[in-house]
Amino acid sequence: MSNEFVSRSLDEIRFWSRIMKEHSLFLKLGFRCEDTQLIQEADHFYHTFEQIEGKSHAFTELTDPEQIIRFNMEAHLAATHIWAFKRRVLGLIIQCKLPGGNNFPLLVDHTSREANYFRNRLEELNAGRLEPLPDAIIDENVFFLRIMADHAKFIGHLLDPSERQLVEQARNFSQDFDQLLFQAVDLSGMRPQSQTEPLLDQFLDQNRVSVVSLRDFKKTARDLIDACRIKSIIHPLLADHVFREAERFLYIIDMFEASLTRKQAAN
Ligand SMILES: [Fe+2]
Ligand SMILES: [Fe+2]
Fold first, then answer.
1. Is 1-130 CATH 1.20.1260.120?
2. What is the Cα–Cα distance from 15 to 52, expressed in whole angstroms?
3. pTM to 2 decimals?
4. Per-residue confidence at 168, pLDDT binned at 50, 70, 90?
5. How far is the CA of 183 from the centre of ligand 1 (A)?
6. What is the 213 CA–ligand 2 centroid distance (Å)?
7. Most buried of the four, 22, 44, 132, 265, by CB within 10 Å?
């Protein structure tokens, strides 16, 4: 157990606990006012992740790894609970038990996939087994491309229908990312033969181009929403939230690119 373990754990927890905290708020805002029990549960998760986030910033790279193992377990348990909550809410919506609520089923499913991702990352870190690079490249891209495709769909549906140009742009991003996702799934199906360095390198390059333009689109949307220059029912924090998730994906792509380059240099 090293410094690397501590810094990677803190990096994941700092990013994802804030995300989980915000999901709790978005879910709460989408419930009907009579759903007081669900609103309370969402509030409870908000405070749980706010506390975890605070703790993650109190720890440093020099914190005892043993303490971080326990902290990872604590965050893992909270992620498991919010995952179960989101799946239960999804069930209620799909069975039409919350008529008139404002949480899209795909949005709830999406946030539960993010909780599950967070949980898996923590498990891997504590077990000290990270996926081999070529597998990680494909799996992370499959995960994040689908997340990006969903975001484009949410933005398209939450903008006011009268914002025709922006809705159209969001729809184009949705199609672009659906296509990239299918390409990633194809590459995944051709494993391990598809895991050559030139193919993986090209895969990352191609995905990066689209993620950069989606990231810029989200940034513009966020700034326009903040300045109240466009009509939508997008919460300003949701606009910033999806922007940060695109930045996270770019950061991961760059990390993979750097690892591939190091590998090539070593050969
Ligand atoms: Fe999210
Ligand atoms: Fe997301």
1. yes
2. 11
3. 0.96
4. very high
5. 23
6. 17
7. 22
Does 1-130 match 131-267 in CATH topology?
Answer: yes
How is 67-116 classified by DSSP, letter by letter? HHHHHHHHHHHHHHHHHHHHHHHHHHHHTTSSTT----HHHHHHHHHHHH
Summarised one tens digit per residue, pLDDT across range 183-218 is 999 999 999 999 999 999 999 999 999 999 999 999
Which ligand has the nearest atom to the CA of 23? 1
* pLDDT beyond 60 at 1: no
**Which pair of tokens denotes residue 93?**
């919506």
- Please tell me the distance between residue 131's alpha carbon and the centre of ligand 1 in angstroms: 23
Alpha helices in the chain (DSSP H): 3-30, 36-58, 65-94, 105-127, 133-158, 164-189, 197-226, 236-266
CA of 18 to the centre of ligand 1 (A): 9
Q: Does domain 131-267 have CATH number 1.20.1260.120?
A: yes
Per the document, the length of the chain is 267
Predicted pLDDT of residue 2: 76
For 208-264, write each residue's pLDDT tens digit: 999 999 999 999 999 999 999 999 999 999 999 999 999 999 999 999 999 999 888
Q: Which ligand is nearest to the CA of 148?
A: 2
Distance 178 CA to ligand 1 centre (A): 18
Q: How many whole angstroms from 134 Cα to the centroid of ligand 2?
A: 24
97 Cα: distance to centroid of ligand 1 (angstroms): 24
